[in-house]
Design a protein that fits this description.
This protein is an alpha/beta fold and 261 residues long. Helices cover 26% and strands 24% of the residues. The chain has helices at 2-18, 82-90, 109-125, 150-161, 213-221, 246-249, and strands spanning 29-38, 43-53, 65-71, 94-97, 138-148, 176-182, 200-205, 228-233.
Length: 261
């Protein structure tokens, strides 16, 4: 029994030693372009795409670059999430931050989940855009959806509605590889957790008054099939996932730790 355990531990140590330290900046510089992304009912103007660069070119050893679509929070601009795009681009990801419309009341999350898909497809389609810096550089079959608050909710809803449904207008089973949500309340319409077969990481805060961690766990985690992970951050509130949180501190001022922590 000791021999297989020891073999496993040695193998795991070797694998971990080969993995990048994703908490630190990656090996590449980053840059971005501002784009307008057309969709079914609106144009997502002033969206940004962050990507890795060395000497004005996407580095060869980063190719093909996986696609990340990052969804912003309700009535929070994408400028509050630039650090995510910068950090992931430094590790070789192409990160699109779409400017999803924000009605004052009752946003249709299903529609906004489709906008996330449209944004990811826009970035992936640049792979075949002749003469573009992205031509031949995009991993068109490896996507991740990430988002804070509403952005995470619509990412999870996309995993419910558009991965394995046979009658879905989108078919993400061959492209969407993971979903990450930060402090995301239940979507409207509601997400059915047992239909989320995509691997998902859900981060929640102990002091979150907007998306209490117990509600998030009940909505998305209790019935979700493996694989996945649910993490509760002690002392965290709803807004410190943003680069700058004054936009929502007034309604969620709780929290015992800093954003950096």
């Amino acid at each position: 029994m000791r021999i297989p355990i020891l073999s496993f531990l040695i193998s795991a140590t070797i694998i971990l030693a080969q993995c990048p330290d994703y908490s630190a900046p990656g090996p590449y510089e980053w840059t971005y372009r501002t784009v307008s992304i057309p969709s079914e009912d609106e144009t997502m103007s002033s969206s940004r795409i962050f990507y890795p660069v060395i000497n004005d070119s996407i580095p060869a050893d980063a190719v093909p670059c996986p696609v990340v679509a990052f969804g912003h929070g309700f009535n929070i601009g994408i400028d509050k999430y630039y650090s995510y795009g910068q950090h992931l681009a430094s590790h070789g990801f192409i990160v699109v931050l779409p400017t999803i419309s924000n009605p004052v009341f009752n946003p249709n999350h299903n529609y906004r989940a489709r906008l996330m898909i449209t944004a990811a497809r826009y970035a992936a389609d640049l792979n075949s855009s002749s003469g573009d810096v992205f031509e031949g550089k995009v991993d068109v079959d490896n996507w991740a959806f990430i988002g804070h608050s509403m952005g995470g909710a619509i990412s999870l809803l996309a995993g419910d509605r558009y991965v394995s449904y046979p009658d879905s207008m989108y078919h993400l089973a061959d492209t969407l590889r993971c979903i990450i949500s930060y402090a995301s309340p239940q979507s409207n319409p509601a997400t059915v957790a047992e239909r989320i077969i995509t691997p998902a990481l859900m981060l929640t805060g102990e002091k979150d008054n907007t998306a209490p961690w117990e509600d998030v766990r009940s909505a998305y985690w209790a019935d979700k099939p493996a694989p996945g992970a649910f993490a509760l951050i002690d002392g965290a509130n709803h807004c410190y996932y943003c680069d700058e949180s004054s936009v929502c501190d007034w309604f969620d001022p709780s929290g015992d730790i800093t954003r950096e922590e």
